[in-house]
Amino acid sequence: MAANDTIADMLTRIRNANLARHQTTQVPATKMTRSIARVLQEEGFISEFEEAGEGVKRNLVISLKYKGKNRQPLINTLKRVSKPGLRVYSNKKELPRVLGGIGIAIISTPSGIMTDREARRQNLGGEVLCYVW
């Protein structure tokens, strides 16, 4: 995996932490990972995230959510859509619906990172970063 795809890296770390039933996971803090974490938190997929570390080496510590006594991860699937080698854009009419609206698509729009629902509401298209459900 290319080291410069911070989003795929972030998704993989969350995926792996979920599989291992970790309470938290760390991802390098960038503007992008911060925005995605914010959307995941707003949509209730993670409980919280905070920044830790010094200067350049800042990390986001993401607290994962589980449900039930078997601690099933709330996030079943994290799917990277737009990759550095193949960007996927969608205009406002073609914004994807994930699992008929059960999941969310995280879109990078001119007005920032948001869910497909929010982008539709604001009449925006953009780069489809990933699907979460």
Task: Describe the model.
- The protein is an alpha+beta fold.
- It is built from three helices and ten strands.
- 29% of the residues are buried.
- The mean pLDDT is 95.
Estimated share of beta-strand residues: 25-35%
Instruction: Report the biggest beta sheet as strand number plus sense, adding barrel if it closes.
Output: 5 strands, antiparallel
Helix content: 10-25%
- Classify the secondary structure makeup into a structural class: alpha+beta
Distance between the termini: 23 Å
Write the layout of secondary structure elements.
Elements: H1 6-19, E1 24-28, H2 31-42, E2 46-52, E3 59-64, E4 66-67, E5 72-73, E6 78-80, E7 89-90, E8 104-109, E9 112-115, H3 116-121, E10 126-132
Antiparallel strand pairs: 1-3, 2-3, 4-5, 6-10, 7-10, 8-9, 8-10
Task: Summarize this structure as a short list of keywords or feature phrases.
24% helix, 3 helices, five-stranded antiparallel β-sheet, alpha+beta, 133 residues, three-stranded antiparallel β-sheet
Brief sketch in words of this structure:
By secondary structure, this protein is an alpha+beta fold. It has three helices and ten strands.
